[in-house]
């Protein structure tokens, strides 16, 4: 009599293609930051992900494709952070928005420190310039659809060539903060305010205290 009982198999469940690509990209991100782009091979990646070397080629034809995927990850994270910052903004509170924006900027610049060091190598200069252009363009695209549009609904935009101005601003802030890490947040905020011609910071003033008889208050 035939045994129709399903037999168990020892074959491991397959990983979905998107998940596998994510695993490879994450591994490349770790290895690029610790070993460097040039010193990371497909064999290193296969060992890190625990797959056959040929599978890496199935998803990424060459190292340039992997580098692009890693850099796209950094860009996507930054854009998501900008979207979250925009969603959390208090309408009309420009001072807080600027402060929070610079905090987001600093956080993501620090998160890129290991990779940034690698990209700054002479042999990677062209790659870094392309990455920075892609990153700044993606952030400006995001701002055009969110913050800039919302600001224009409440205030008059005092600058011309809005998109180009934001591009120059973000590009410049990256260069300044990288080449002068000691520059303060207050300086970055002031530069942003000046370039975008935003209203000056609101000053909190205290009304003078008076005594019941109108005499000046005693020093306290």
Automatic annotation (TrEMBL):
Q: Which domain of life is it from?
A: Bacteria
Q: Where is the composition biased (Polar residues)?
A: 1-12
Domain HTH tetR-type span(s) in chain numbering:
18-78
Looking up InterPro entries in the UniProt record yields: Homeodomain-like_sf, HTH-type_TetR-like_transc_reg, HTH_TetR
Tell me which residues form the DNA-binding region: 41-60
What are the UniProt keywords, alphabetically? DNA-binding, Transcription, Transcription regulation
- Region Disordered: start-end pairs: 1-20
Q: Name one GO molecular function term.
A: transcription cis-regulatory region binding
This protein's record includes keyword Ribonucleoprotein: no
Give yes or no: UniProt keyword Transcription: yes
PANTHER family, from UniProt? HTH-TYPE TRANSCRIPTIONAL REGULATOR BETI, HTH-TYPE TRANSCRIPTIONAL REGULATOR RUTR
Protein name, per record: Transcriptional regulator, TetR family
């Amino acid at each position: 009599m035939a045994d129709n009982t399903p037999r168990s198999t020892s074959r491991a469940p397959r990983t979905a293609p998107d998940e596998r690509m994510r695993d490879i990209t994450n591994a490349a991100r770790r290895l690029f930051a610790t070993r460097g782009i040039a010193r990371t091979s497909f064999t290193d990646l296969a060992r890190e992900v625990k797959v056959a070397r040929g599978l890496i080629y199935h998803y990424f034809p060459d190292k340039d494709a992997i580098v692009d995927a890693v850099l796209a990850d950094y860009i996507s994270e930054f854009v998501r952070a900008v979207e979250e910052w925009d969603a959390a903004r208090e309408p009309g509170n420009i001072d807080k928005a600027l402060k929070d924006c610079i905090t987001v900027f600093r956080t993501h610049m620090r998160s890129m420190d290991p990779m940034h060091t690698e990209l700054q190598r002479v042999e990677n200069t062209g790659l870094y310039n392309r990455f920075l252009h892609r990153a700044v363009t993606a952030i400006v695209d995001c701002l055009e659809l969110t913050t800039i549009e919302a600001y224009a609904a409440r205030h008059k935009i005092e600058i011309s060539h809005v998109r180009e101005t934001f591009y120059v601003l973000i590009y410049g802030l990256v260069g300044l903060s990288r080449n002068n890490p000691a520059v303060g947040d207050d300086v970055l905020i002031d530069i942003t305010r000046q370039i975008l011609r935003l209203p000056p910071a609101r000053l909190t003033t205290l009304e003078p205290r008076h005594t019941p008889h109108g005499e000046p208050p005693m020093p306290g």
